[in-house]
Amino acid sequence: MSKVLIIGGGAAGMMAGVFAARNGHDVHIFEKNEKLGKKLFITGKGRCNITNAADMEMLFNAVVTNPKFLYSGFYSFTNEQVITFFEELGVKTKIERGDRVFPQSDHSSDVIQALYRELQRLHVSISLNTEVEKVLVKDQKVEGVQLKDETIVKGDSCIVATGGLSYASTGSTGDGYRFAKESGHHVTQLRPALVPMEAKEPYVQELQGLSLRNVNIRILDDKKVIYNEFGEMLFTHYGVSGPLMISASSKVGDLLLKKNLTLSIDLKPALSFEQLDARVLRDFNDNRNKQFKNGIDKLFPAKLKPVILERSGIDPEKKINEINREEREHFVRLIKDFRLTLTGLRSFKEAIITKGGVNVKEIDPGTMESKIIDHLYFIGEVLDLDALTGGFNLQIAWSTAYMAGNAIK
Predict the structure, then answer these.
(1) Which of 69, 102, 215, 303 is the most exposed place for a label (fewest CB within 10 A)?
(2) Rounded to an integer, what distance in angstroms lies between the CA atom of residue 65 and that of residue 60?
(3) What is the DSSP annotation of 162-216?
(4) pLDDT tens figures, 151-181
């Protein structure tokens, strides 16, 4: 039996603690917050999207950065095994749209409590309100940790599970990146991911709070389409958010740091241009004697109507029977290709995860052990791994934690 020190009591830290303790080790978790799983508590809007029930190919496709590194992890502790793990701990699950897996109760606290009960059953030592200042290394091997109050805790192995830089209020302040650098590892560029985006046009403020469902978005770099997806989005006072935009941020974020991009929204993706033109023509015929501003109510949510009117180039007071074909076709194009200029990403405060982290070339993918320092492990968001929304990032946390917890001798 060896003494295992785990820095961070979030999703990855707790899971690693369970498996290390099940393997008979003396496990100590150090958490600087007043409770475990603080970030896990707010994931999935407080419902905790535990994993995704998609097949393996889809799981790997959802990983944006370094998917090949996760080959061993995903196959060793699969999404099905994660579901079974929680079911055995008393957390009944359900599968929702997009194969997202949630606790049946819709309470993230049930997931945290299940992990906490298992840690207690396994006699894992948990130190809350305890901040680790330094990982102690001698002769390229872990010796222990030094706490902020300068207490030294000796240990045979150390698992760094400190999270990233997103949601700093939950304790994710980048400590793990410092531990990595101090012990000779490289950390790739860090930036917010799964984060809302800012837009240039002032009229987004008028649209604040408007949610659009069943729309198709394309993000263009000049004329090249770099993202194309169907779903739901939300306008904010600064730009755009919602599931579509947050997932898109992981795909286009690097480019958006360098230049502006164009967002094209198809407000009626179920209809072709010709079908929509025919629909608009019918509406126009039904309302031929009305002013333009009073004859298009059926086409848009009320909040969107003033912006569409302004951008259509058609005088709102103009009688519908006076609108010519060219004006109508321009109006239909606007509905199929409503454009905004994306200018940047929001900050880490609003990001779900961090893109970048400990360089995975310096980590053994079969154990999560450092290739530089013996008995030092890095798991979860502190690594240069990130995925789309839908439970994939928690799957990364569980799988990497499982690998480390089972690898320690």
Answers:
(1) 303
(2) 10
(3) ---SSSGGGT-SSHHHHHHHHTT--BPPPEEES--EEES-GGGGTTTT-EEEEEE
(4) 999 999 999 999 999 877 787 889 999 999 9
